[in-house]
Specification:
- It comes from Cupriavidus taiwanensis.
- This is DUF4157 domain-containing protein.
- By secondary structure, the chain is α+β, with helices and mostly antiparallel strands.
- The protein has one domain.
- The chain has 8 helices and 6 strands.
- Helix 2 (31-39) packs antiparallel against helix 3 (56-81), helix 6 (152-168) packs across helix 7 and helix 6 (152-168) crosses helix 8.
- The chain is globular, with a radius of gyration of 16 Å.
Length: 202
């Protein structure tokens, strides 16, 4: 961690013939409207495959505002109080595709904060987004890492998520794409997670 952070503390998913990111970018009329549009598409859902309790696609229009509000509430304190990357950290983040690594800030926490919204909290737990083994979380340029887990592998995984946020264009568009992928493929098989794992450096 100290070598990366300054001291201080897939196209697999296709909707209407477009990649998820293309779909989001092409619907500037509103994120919630795009969520409703995706809800109406013919997307396979098999909650038993991933031991899910919730059909996230059905919940997405109502779930998305809570997810965005929670993400933004987490982002500001990390950007304001977190640690910037060192020169080595900037280089590594650039190597996995981050366009503006100088904007990244990392906060070390005892445990990752859970959403306060009850439905959102239940969904992220039931889908595997959060659990006892969750040690990293990226929200835009803000990264939270559980104490003792700041490995090169985890950091590069989270850096790749930063790249994905940049490509999506906003936290709102990323979360729309990400949650829809989790709903469709499950956490482990979501294209954005596969992409992040493929860019881990050991």
């Amino acid at each position: 961690m100290s070598s990366y952070v300054a001291a201080v503390d897939a196209s697999i998913f296709v909707v209407l013939g477009e990649s998820m990111f293309e779909f989001c970018v092409q619907h500037p009329s509103g994120i919630e409207k795009a969520a409703y549009a995706m809800q109406d598409t013919k997307i396979p859902h098999n909650p038993r495959r991933w031991n899910m309790t919730y059909n996230i696609l059905a919940l997405l229009p109502s779930l998305l505002p809570a997810a965005i509000a929670w993400a933004k509430s987490m982002t500001d304190p990390v950007i304001r109080n977190g640690s910037a990357l060192t020169e080595q950290g900037l280089s590594v983040a650039s190597a996995v595709g981050v366009a503006m690594p100088e904007r990244i800030h990392i906060a070390m926490v005892d445990s990752l904060p859970m959403p306060q919204d009850e439905t959102l909290r239940n969904v992220v737990c039931s889908t595997g987004l959060f659990g006892p083994d969750t040690v990293g979380l990226t929200l835009g340029y803000a990264i939270l890492i559980a104490e003792g887990h700041a490995t090169r592998r985890l950091l590069t995984h989270e850096f790749r998520h930063v790249h994905q946020y940049e490509k999506a264009g906003s936290i709102e568009k990323f979360l729309l794409a990400y949650l829809a992928e989790i709903a469709t493929f499950g956490y482990f098989d979501a294209p954005l997670e596969i992409d992040a794992r493929d860019h881990e450096l050991h």
